[in-house]
Amino acid sequence: MAEPILVIKDLHVSVDGNEILRGVDLQVPKGEVHALMGPNGSGKSTLASVLLGHPAYAIMQGTITFKGTDVTTLVPEDRAKLGMFLAFQYPVEVPGVSVSNFLRTAMSAVRGKDVPVREFMQQLRETLDQLGIDQAFARRNLNEGFSGGEKKRGEVLQLALLQPELAVLDETDSGLDIDAVRTVAEAVNRLRGPDIGFLVITHYTRILKYIKPDRVHLLLGGRVVKEGGPELADHLEEVGYKEVRKEFGIDTDQAPELEAEEQTA
């Protein structure tokens, strides 16, 4: 495995006094796509939020290291400036703010300086063409009236423009029909390369049929309990999470509790 760009060690996280992550160990190298799979309530979305510094979660123990820098206590904007990116499971609507204005503001924040309008617009047009997105998309209000697929394409557009070195995709396939999943996956595949690492978080294997992972991690009960190649995702699809919980001796009643705790935040 190549040198990891992201290293998570013994990460314990709680919200409102309830422990959700219970000792996560995980590494993602630059230039690779890693998938994090697990049932509802296993802590997947919690991990995504913690990686980018969501203030609602308390890190009780462990470290998050990115490009050799301990980012465990950094605020979200500082992590973004270092090259970390999170594509949200449920992107929010922002009435009155166009996609283009939002993206230019985001680029300026990450770069730490104002991006000239002409430079930004040229890059935006080129990126829209690269991703196969209509130019009119940028003139719409951010996520207002967007379908699920349009919201996720907007996240991928933001990813392409910000050019991070680590992209965390939190259940990007959630709520999408098969055509939208394929469209988003194709856009992600265009962005794959030696200069970026991906952590794709998902319940199912359907998006992994289009985004082939280099490595798969199984999260159960707040811990990574198994790792393997793409064949691990196929195994999980075949046997289901209930059988895998039995394999690792994890109480099947534990998941609903964790799910409720995750959604509290």
Q: Give the assembly state of these chains.
A: single chain
- Count the strands? 12
- Rg, nearest Å: 18 Å
What's the number of helices? 9
Task: Specify the CATH class.
Answer: Alpha Beta
Total tally of structural domains: 1
Strand order of the biggest β-sheet: 6-9-10-3-11-12
Describe the structure.
The chain has 265 residues and is α/β, with parallel strands linked by helices. The chain has one domain: 3-Layer(aba) Sandwich (Rossmann fold). It has nine helices and twelve strands. The protein has helices spanning 44-51, 76-82, 99-111, 117-131, 148-162, 178-191, 230-239, 241-247, 254-264; strands at 4-15, 18-29, 33-37, 58-66, 69-70, 84-87, 94-98, 141-142, 166-170, 197-202, 215-220, 223-228. A six-stranded mixed β-sheet has the order 6-9-10-3-11-12, sandwiched between helices. α5 (148-162) packs parallel to α6 (178-191).
Can you give keywords for this protein?
single chain; 265 residues; six-stranded mixed β-sheet; four-stranded antiparallel β-sheet; 9 helices; disordered C terminus
How do the helices and strands line up, and which of them pair or pack?
Blueprint: E1 4-15, E2 18-29, E3 33-37, H1 44-51, E4 58-66, E5 69-70, H2 76-82, E6 84-87, E7 94-98, H3 99-111, H4 117-131, E8 141-142, H5 148-162, E9 166-170, H6 178-191, E10 197-202, E11 215-220, E12 223-228, H7 230-239, H8 241-247, H9 254-264
Parallel strand pairs: 3-10, 3-11, 6-9, 9-10
Antiparallel strand pairs: 1-2, 1-4, 4-5, 7-8, 11-12
Helix pairs in contact: 3-5, 5-6
